[in-house]
Amino acid sequence: MVANHGQNRQYYHDVVGCNSRLDSIQAAILNCKLSRLDGYNARRQAAARYYDEHLAGIDDLITPARLPASTHVYHQYTLRIADGRREELLQHLKDAGIPSMIYYPVPLYDQAAFRARRLMR
Q: Which pTM value belongs to this model?
């Protein structure tokens, strides 16, 4: 569990853990791919700009914020829905053949790994 973010099942963390599931073969492959990282990130950023342009002006839809002194690489392009219609948006995207999912459905403050800290306040 500790090597898998402290989780027994996806998104439920009972203890504080880390991500150390990388073996030597995976490390060697990633070492070869490292030279392509800037290109991967540039394509993700281009996709994010496309999404930003096409999602602009939709009421109650909040796209990722950008800070002027940082660079986002968009491991996930996270949308927030201000009007509570998240399930409706998910269904609309699914019907249109656009893959989407809810990442991290359980907030960090609600994970068992941090429950004791929350009670200490």
A: 0.71
